[in-house]
Write a structure and sequence with these properties.
Layout: E1 2-5, H1 7-15, H2 20-31, E2 35-39, H3 40-51, H4 56-72, E3 75-76, H5 80-95, H6 102-114, E4 117-120, E5 134-136
Parallel strand pairs: 1-2, 1-4, 2-3, 4-5
Helix pairs in contact: 3-4, 5-6
Length: 137
Amino acid sequence: MGIVLDSSVLVSAEREKLPVSVLLDRLQKEHSVSEIILSAVSVVELEHGIYRARSGEQAASRRSYLDTVFDAIPVEALTREIGSTVAQADAEARKRGLVIPFADLLIGGTALHFGFGLARRNVRHFRMIVGLTVISL
């Protein structure tokens, strides 16, 4: 199974000083993951953390970690097809009275488009997306 890796997993791994290679190896072994990708939206979320760093040293450490992440994990752009999937998922959720944060819709829609699951630390919003397999880490 392929997965879209949510930024929450990478933020947690960086805080725990877990090397990217170890994280990816664990995901592949523990969850039988064959392919791992990122949504372009996660890039925004992760880069945002660099600009919110409390010091130059922290910013440099985060940059180094993210450079390793981006070297190891392909990033998928938001396409028209993914946009259509997101629109459908949002419409279905709103018919049920649910409002899902837009960034989560985009990330979840990316996973749906590719037929992948989504690995996340907090699964609350993603569980509202019909048809999305969510892996809680």
